[in-house]
Automatic annotation (TrEMBL):
UniProt-recorded name of the protein: Phenylalanine--tRNA ligase beta subunit
TRNA-binding domain ranges (all copies): 39-156
Location (main, coarse): cytoplasm
Domain of life: Bacteria
Gene Ontology MF annotations: ATP binding; magnesium ion binding; phenylalanine-tRNA ligase activity; tRNA binding
Annotated EC: 6.1.1.20
Gene expressing this chain: pheT
GO biological process: phenylalanyl-tRNA aminoacylation
Organism: Tractidigestivibacter scatoligenes
Reaction catalysed by this enzyme: tRNA(Phe) + L-phenylalanine + ATP = L-phenylalanyl-tRNA(Phe) + AMP + diphosphate + H(+)
Keywords: Aminoacyl-tRNA synthetase, ATP-binding, Cytoplasm, Ligase, Magnesium, Metal-binding, Nucleotide-binding, Protein biosynthesis, RNA-binding, tRNA-binding
Cofactor binding note from Swiss-Prot or TrEMBL: Binds 2 magnesium ions per tetramer.
Quaternary structure, from the entry: Tetramer of two alpha and two beta subunits.
Membrane-traversing stretches: none
Keyword RNA-binding: yes
Length: 820
């Protein structure tokens, strides 16, 4: 919201220096994005007088002028001399007072005034029109000032248009502050100063009653809670008065004509958007009236808006129609070209209405059409003020457009919303604020904000909040207003009262930090990627959507490839790998702990489980004297094992992953990770080359992804204590030849099952394949077995019996044989 300091001065007493007010705004919660000087861009633009006007020697439509700018142009002796300027305008004469831009001026649109030659004659400036100075659209001729206008004065000083504009960032819960009146009320409360706001009023109403000219119908009050219409006749379209143009410019708009400028001015003044329809372009029905119908748009209905673009509408959009059939405006967003005000307009239908904030927001974003009106409607416009604002605009039409205001106002208001009445307890305010705020301060500042405050029982106050403050509905809302106006910086910080309470991280928080520490200790660097994702990420990866819900789509994505929330962390990490490799980093080891988003058809909120995902690509950084080796499956598996060991997850198993289920991983180089009770925690494996190519990665990548929820649930703070063995063990090596289909896990389980109580350890140390010595389709797996008894030293006979029994059982169960 651009707050004109000169305009604000007309409504409330403010400090002489705008910086003092800026500091108060920031102190009380209104962020200020910047402060600028309006008129500063018109430096080197002065009032001047035409001393002489002669035809250009080489042109039939240009003039060679001598223009006096007073002491702003002098000769070498310091005496004022005129400027020679070539001018193409036809509307001036010798002796006229005009506006001249001298060399060095930079006009709106970054037009730089330099010494130039026009048809061979030198020109040392430019005589200016309104459009060239950004003060209007009049380009038919240069500005002619009154005969008594001084010469050599800065034009902004002459106009009194040198102004300071404070650009405030208004939060969505404060629609009242999207207006000059609202900011005046806010300033009044911040500075504890009274307001002196004077609003225009209609001097005379004449002509037919508005009810005899216009009829309004609202089909659905959900779309439009209130609609008012006034009629003004015999409007004279033309340039706006200087005061009106200046204020429209200060608010951030460009003056168009008096009708458009009045509606814009009133919107900036009150926060209520208005729209002016050309009454003559609406069809007169059999009863002699124009019928305005507010309804939902029909699917596929077309409307050409004022920006001359044809829009395709949907049923969740609201339109203003001529008689219920022809759309003439997109409600709350932009008017239609078919009812536009133009030079032929004489009678105007003035709309002042409120529309559903949610529907306006969706319409604006779906059509990528944002306007000053839609910004205000999205934040909720005060329906109670529609008629009053319409009267203000009608008064300005009367003043600035020489219009006649028809008596009466057509007002359709199906369900008036009462102002909220809230009980506020001063003791409660002080208890929550932690400050000794006087009762008088609370009551006075709330009154400054427009609240009606009355004493109630037990020292409380009954507060009626203004209807333009939708954020004031509860006692705590009033407390927030009191505290921010008191000043949070003036409240002495104190520790919360607590007995026998010590702060600290929860067990889960400690474990999550341990996950990060362990992965960093394994050589991985933590990263954070976007939670926004491309809609094609899973298909590019080759990952099935099964178990990952439906996509959570973003209504208005900033870029096309971030149109939904991610359902896997892996695509983001692969993009990071590609970026690093493209920039010469030949070893990438990254991990991320973050949320993914699984949507559901019948749930308003998606599931947001957390995962830890890691990627390894390139070579291992070992000792400087050793040869670097590329990361492979077992590096990623080792990281996972180290992590599970650090968290004390027991009974961990790795099972070969089904290629049909894990399409994004290379077959034979991927495994599922199971924990205690057979719970699937995640996967680890080499990423499939097709997936890597889809993400622009041209090097092998191994990756893993584990559920954080599973890790936290299966982790143990401590493990059962096991005594250190005091008796020696006996080691025996066993090599068994089995079919290729028999996995190490299956064979190891058979060995442990057959070993009984004496078998204390099993470790694979060799896998050997040879078509001649082992056999085609066969492999030899060699294990180191350790036998030990807890209460005595084993004899060779005991070990032989136990080992023979183990070999027999394993061979029968697996169809294998002992390799000789």
């Amino acid at each position: 919201m651009r707050v004109s300091y000169e305009w604000l001065k007309d409504m409330v007493d403010v400090p002489e220096d705008p910086k003092d007010l800026v500091n108060e705004y920031i102190r009380t919660g209104t962020e200020v994005e910047g402060v600028e000087r309006v008129g500063a861009d018109l430096d080197h633009v002065y009032t001047a007088q035409v001393v002489s006007k002669k035809p250009h020697p080489d042109s039939d439509h240009m003039w060679l002028c001598q223009v006096s700018v007073g002491d702003k142009n002098v000769d070498e002796n310091g005496n004022p001399v005129p400027l020679q300027i070539v001018c193409g305008a036809q509307n001036f004469n010798e002796g006229d007072h005009i506006v001249t831009a001298m060399i060095g001026a930079v006009l709106p649109g970054d037009v730089k005034i330099k010494k130039s030659k026009l048809r061979g004659v030198e020109s040392f400036g430019m005589n200016c029109s309104e459009r060239e100075l950004g003060l209007g659209n009049d380009h038919d001729g240069i500005i002619i000032l009154p005969p008594d206008a001084p010469v050599g004065m800065l034009y902004t000083d002459y106009l009194g248009s040198s102004d300071t504009v404070i650009d405030c960032e208004i939060t969505p819960n404060r629609p009242d502050c999207l207006s000059m009146v609202g900011m005046a009320v806010e300033t009044s409360a911040v500075l504890d100063e009274g307001t002196h706001i004077t609003l225009p009023s209609i001097k005379e109403e004449k002509g037919p009653d508005a009810h005899d000219l216009v009829d309004v119908q609202i089909d659905d009050a959900e779309f439009c809670p209130r609609y008012t219409a006034r009629v003004v006749r015999n409007v004279k379209i033309g340039p706006s008065p200087e005061w009106l143009a200046r204020r429209v410019i200060a608010a951030g708009s460009r003056p168009i004509n008096n009708v458009v400028d009045v509606t814009n001015y009133v919107m900036y003044l009150t926060g209520q958007p208005l729209h002016a329809f050309d009454l003559g372009k609406l069809q007169k029905r059999e009863d002699g009236k124009r019928h305005v119908v507010v309804r939902a748009a029909r699917d596929g209905e077309l409307l050409t808006t004022l920006d001359e673009k044809e829009r395709t509408l949907t049923p969740d959009m609201c339109v203003i129609t001529d008689g219920g059939e022809t759309p003439i405006a997109l409600a709350g967003v932009m008017g239609g070209l078919n009812s536009e005000i133009d030079e032929t307009t004489t009678d105007v239908l003035l709309e002042s209405a409120t529309f559903s904030a949610g529907h306006i927001s969706r319409t604006s974003r779906n059509l990528d059409l944002m306007s000053e009106a839609s910004i205000r409607y999205e934040r909720q416009v005060d329906g109670a003020g529609c008629a009053d604002v319409s009267n203000i605009a009608a008064a300005l039409f009367e003043e600035c457009c020489s219009a006649e205001v028809c008596p009466g106002i057509v007002d359709v208001y199906p369900g008036p919303v009462p102002a909220p009445v809230i009980t506020m307890r001063p003791a409660r305010v002080r208890a929550l604020a932690g400050a000794d705020i006087p009762d008088d301060f609370m009551a006075a500042r709330l009154k400054r904000l427009g609240c009606k405050v009355e004493p109630a029982e037990n020292g409380a106050y009954t507060v009626t909040a203004p209807t333009n403050r939708p954020d004031l509905t509860r006692e705590v809302d009033l407390i927030e207003e009191v505290v921010r106006l008191w000043g949070e910086g003036d409240i002495t910080p104190t520790l919360p009262a607590a007995r026998n309470h010590a702060g600290g991280l929860t067990v889960d928080q400690q474990r999550i930090r341990k996950i990060g520490r362990t992965l960093r200790a394994c050589g991985l660097s933590e990263t954070t990627t976007y939670c926004f994702a491309d809609a094609n990420d899973l298909s590019k990866l080759g990952m099935s959507e099964e178990g990952r819900g439906i996509p959570v789509k973003i209504i208005n994505p900033l870029v096309a490839d971030q149109a939904e929330m991610r359902r896997s962390i892996l695509p983001g990490l692969l993009r990071s790998v590609a970026y690093n490799l493209d920039h010469g980093v030949d070893a990438v080891a990254l991990y991320e702990i973050g949320r993914v988003f699984f949507g559901h058809e019948n749930k308003s909120q998606p599931d947001e489980p957390s995962f830890v995902c890691g990627v390894l690509s390139g070579h291992r950084d070992d000792e400087w004297c050793q040869k670097f080796e590329d990361y492979d499956f077992f590096d990623a598996k080792g990281v996972v094992e180290q992590l599970l060991s650090a968290l004390r997850v027991t009974k961990v198993r790795f099972k070969a992953a089904d290629p049909q289920t894990y399409g994004w991983l290379q077959p034979g180089r991927a495994a599922e990770v199971y924990g205690n009770k057979g719970e699937l925690m995640g996967w680890v494996g080499n990423v499939h080359p097709k997936a890597l190519k889809a993400f622009g990665v041209d090097a092998p990548v191994v990756a893993f992804e584990l559920s954080v929820e599973s890790l936290l649930r299966l982790a143990h703070r401590e493990l059962p204590y096991v005594d250190v063995p005091t008796l020696p063990g006996v080691s025996v090596d066993l090599a068994i030849v089995v079919d290729e289909s028999v996995t190490c896990e299956q064979l190891e389980q058979r060995i442990k099952s057959a070993g009984g109580k004496l078998l204390s350890d099993v470790r694979l140390f060799d896998v050997y394949r040879d078509p001649v010595r082992v056999g085609m389709g066969k492999k030899s797996m060699a294990f180191s077995l350790t036998y030990r008894s807890a209460d005595h030293t084993l004899t060779s006979e005991e070990v032989d019996r136990a080992h023979k029994k183990l070999v027999d059982k394993v061979c029968r169960a697996t169809g294998g044989e002992v390799r000789g």
